[in-house]
Design a protein that fits this description.
8-stranded mixed β-sheet, two-stranded antiparallel sheet, 299 residues, alpha/beta
C-alpha cells in the first residue's frame, strides 16, 4: 500500500497529552507532520503531559512543540494557533480532541458541571477552529477533524451536558463545511471510543482491554490527509470497527393543502407514517430536507 504522508504539513492537536490525542500526535509525526501538542494536563511527578508527548515525538526523530493554553477561551485558541505559526509557519491540520467529563444525572447536575463541559467541548472547538480556519482559508487548504460522541448522537445515562456539547459540535460542523468548502478545507467529525484516563470507572476492565486508544487513529489520520476529499461526515469507531453515522430523515407525510387548518387528530391517524424511517436518507444541508414536503412547501 502507498503510505499516507504529511511531509511539510503542520498539525495542531488539542488534548494530545494523553489517550487518543497522544496517539494522533504520534502517528502524524511519524508520517512527517510537524505537530503542536496542546494539553493543559500536568502530573505532580511526571510533569506536563504535552511535554512528555513532544519528547516522545522528538526521540523518534519527529518535530513537535508543546502548547499549554486552554481551548476554552478565544485568547487560548488564538495562542494555540499562534504557537503553530511561530514555530512552523502554517496550519494545515486541526484535530479538536480536548475534553473533560462531569457526569451527573440531569436532575442533580449543577450549573458549574454544565458550563465546564460546554466550555471545553463546544466553545473550545469554536475557539481553536476559528483562528485555525482563518489561516487555512488564506492558504487555500485545510483538514479539520472534530470530536463528537455516541453519547450525544444516541444518549448515555448521566451525560446530558457532554451529549449536548457533542451534538453542538456536529451542528457546528454541518454549517462550517458549507462555509469553507470552496477554500479546499474539509471538515469531518469522529466519535471515538477508547480506554483513557477520561473514561476510568466508566468502562469495564474486560472491555477496556479491547478498545485501545490507538485503534481510533487510522481513520483520523486518513481524514487529515490530502487524499481525503470527503467533508461533513460523522464516523463512529471503536476497537477497529469504523462506520459512518448520520442524521437522517424519513419520507414523512403531507397533510392538508397549505390553506385549511390541520388537526392534531389527523397527525394521530398518520403517526405511524410520520415516525417511520423506512427509506431514510442523509441530507447535505437543511434546504434539501424540505424537498420531502415539496407538494406543500413548494421548495
Amino acid at each position: 500500500m502507498k503510505p499516507i504522508e504529511f511531509e511539510n504539513q503542520v498539525a495542531i492537536i488539542t488534548g494530545a497529552g494523553e489517550g487518543i490525542g497522544r496517539t494522533y500526535a504520534l502517528d502524524l509525526a511519524q508520517r512527517g507532520a510537524k505537530v503542536v501538542v496542546n494539553d493543559i494536563g500536568e502530573h505532580p511527578e511526571k510533569g506536563k503531559t504535552a511535554d512528555r508527548v513532544v519528547a516522545e515525538i522528538r526521540s523518534n526523530g519527529g518535530d513537535a512543540v508543546a502548547s499549554y493554553d486552554s481551548v476554552a477561551t478565544m485568547a487560548g485558541g488564538r495562542q494555540i494557533v499562534q504557537t503553530a505559526l511561530d514555530h512552523f509557519g502554517s496550519v494545515d491540520i486541526l484535530i479538536c480532541n480536548a475534553g473533560i467529563l462531569r457526569d451527573r444525572t440531569f436532575l442533580k447536575m449543577s450549573e458549574q458541571e454544565w458550563d465546564e463541559v460546554i466550555s471545553v467541548h463546544l466553545k473550545g472547538t469554536f475557539c481553536v477552529t476559528q483562528p485555525a480556519v482563518k489561516v487555512m482559508k488564506a492558504a487555500g487548504y485545510g483538514r479539520v477533524v472534530f470530536t463528537a460522541s455516541s453519547s450525544g448522537m444516541y444518549g448515555n445515562f448521566g451525560q446530558s451536558n457532554y451529549g449536548a456539547a457533542k451534538m453542538g459540535i456536529i451542528g457546528m460542523m454541518n454549517t462550517l463545511k458549507l462555509e469553507v468548502d470552496k477554500y479546499n478545507i474539509r471538515v469531518n467529525t469522529v466519535a471515538p471510543s477508547a480506554d483513557t484516563g477520561m473514561t476510568k470507572g466508566v468502562i469495564s476492565d474486560e472491555v477496556a482491554k479491547r478498545i485501545r486508544p490507538e485503534f481510533n487513529t487510522p481513520l483520523v489520520t486518513f481524514l487529515c490527509s490530502r487524499e481525503n476529499e470527503e467533508t461533513g461526515l460523522i464516523f463512529t469507531m471503536s476497537a477497529g470497527w469504523f462506520a459512518r453515522s448520520a442524521m437522517v430523515s424519513g419520507k414523512g407525510v403531507c397533510i392538508g393543502d397549505t390553506q385549511r387548518s390541520i388537526a392534531a387528530e389527523e397527525v394521530r391517524e398518520r403517526f405511524d407514517e410520520i415516525t417511520s424511517i423506512e427509506g431514510a436518507q442523509a441530507y447535505d444541508h437543511c434546504g434539501l430536507i424540505y424537498a420531502l414536503g415539496r407538494p406543500l412547501t413548494g421548495r
